[in-house]
Structures are given as C-alpha cells and as structure tokens.
Amino acid sequence: MSVMAWSPAPAASPLLRQCGAALGDRVLRLQDEPLAILKALYRLGSLVVTTFTSGSRVSQNMHYPAFHEGEWWLESVGDRCRLRQSLQVSQWHSVLAVLEPTGALPARSLVFFDRQGQPLQQMAVAPDSGGLAFEELVCAMLHPDQQTLNPPAGLPRIVAGELGSLSQLERDWAGSADEEDFSQLLQRCHNQRAVLYRSVRDSFACMVRPETLPAVLAEASRRDNATTLCVGNQGVRLCMTAPWSSPRWQGSHCHLAHNGALVSLDMAKMHSLWRLRKPGEGQVITALEALDKNGNWLWTLSAGEAESDWRALLRDSVIR
C-alpha cells in the first residue's frame, strides 16, 4: 500500500512573485476556476499559447475549440505535422489576467498556475482578435480579493517503494502498455527516472553523450525527417510531430520552429540523455529522453512519420 506524506509548501515561482507585485494594477486575480476559464477560451479567437516547463518553452498560434466535459485534449493535424495537447485538469488551480505588459508578459493575456504556484501556460490574445471577449471574461471571473494571491500549498506525495529485482523490473518495463503503466513503475523510485534507468540493462535504457541531441536534431533537419518532441509540466503535456527547422543556437538555448510553433530547449538544464526502448503499437519504440540533475524528465524526442527512418537516423547520430 502506498504511504502518503505531506511535502512542505514550495516557494512561489518568480513569475508568480512578479505578478503579485503588480496585483490590483496591471494584473488582476481571477476566480480559482481555471476549467471554466479554459472552456471560455474559444471565444477569444486567435491565441498565442506559451507552455512553461523546467527546461523548455513552447509558443504556438492556435484557436481553442469549445471544450466538452471529459475532453481535455486538443489535436490538430496538418501537412506532415501533428500537435496533441493533453491537460491534467486536476493540477490547474489559479488564474491571473494581465491587463498591461508586466515583465515579459504581454497585455491581454491569462496566466494559469498549478497548485504549487508554478506557471503552466500563458494565453495571449492576438492583437486583432478577441478584445471585447477578453474584457468580458475578466469581468465575469474577477475575484473579490485583489490584494493577495492564493498561496501555493504542499501536496501529498507517494513515498518510493522497493525497486525489485533486475528481472522483475525488466519484465514490468516490457509489460508497460501505456504511459500509465510506466508511471506506476516510476513510482517505485519516487519518479526519479535516472534511478530506474540505471537499474536496468542497456537494451532497455542506455546513457548517451549529451551532444547526441543537437546532432540528431541537425541531421533530422538535413534529411527533412519529421520527429516527435514531447515536453510538459504538471498540468500540460505537448507532443508535436513535424520536420523541424535546423536548430538555431542562442547561448545554451536550442531553438526549433515549424508552422507557427516555436520551441526553445535549454541545454544547460540537461544533465543526462538516455536512449530508451519501450513497447509500442506492435513494435518496440526507441526514444531519446533528457533528464535534469535531479533525474526529472525534461523532454522526449522520438520517431515522426516512420520508426525505421528514425532508427536509421539514430544509428548515424548517436554518440556513446
């Protein structure tokens, strides 16, 4: 049986502190009803949606559909590209409306935070879209208290269990049919993926040189191969398949682009890179997964249009 413990209340994120300093002036607190606000986003027209993660940032132009109960995902398919956004709605907690530019936050934008005060997504209304609808939404959802923010609270966590023997670990790994099964496996090591990956043989998880990732991205662009990049946080998981542009570097940041989507990966946050093999639909799926210094997930890069092309790409690009 899992043992539950209460983690201490985390410090507020820099973005939350920045918004708190402008509260009641340039920033307004909305009611803690993020799901109702998400359902109303389709009325705002064109949005610039930015997803925050610990090691990356993704911005894209999109129109939200009219959400229905229980359908907390978005999917759009274009020519050689696909985007799927899955929302973990239980983690969405509070919302702030930015009326005037505040730091890097643009005017007429909404910022959503999780239960620990970490930013999940920012939705900015395009200049020629949704002005009146934005004002109406803010007025309808305005919180009566404009002096204080809802402070982050500690959440229960699952204490790590026994990892088990090597043979049992690998049997459970090979039998994980989906992400939920794999998450249960990760709970044994308190979700520290590096602990799990070091506990199995190289045929399951093998550490590769960090330089592999930029090499693979550059070669994929040269061959015009589509690849799938997955990033996320506590409340959002984005999986984007596209023939990404050639990587553009700005310091430690690697920038990728395709059809209005802009991705920035902070390579300074990447402490280790792993080649993984997991069960997929009728075949073994190979992926590259980046972890931070604490063994937490940053992003995953995997096949786009064809697993065979992806494996050929890895054979020519992986640096051991």
UniProtKB/TrEMBL annotation:
- Upper taxonomic classification of the species? Bacteria, Pseudomonadati, Pseudomonadota, Gammaproteobacteria, Oceanospirillales
Q: Which InterPro entries match?
A: Heme_Transport_Util_sf, HemS/ChuX_dom
Position of the signal peptide: none
- Would you tell me the protein name for this molecule? Haemin-degrading HemS/ChuX domain-containing protein
Where does the source fall among the domains of life? Bacteria
Q: Name one Pfam family in it.
A: HemS
Q: Which residues form the Haemin-degrading HemS/ChuX domain?
A: 21-138
Gene3D superfamilies cross-referenced by the UniProt entry? HemS/ChuS/ChuX like domains (3.40.1570.10)
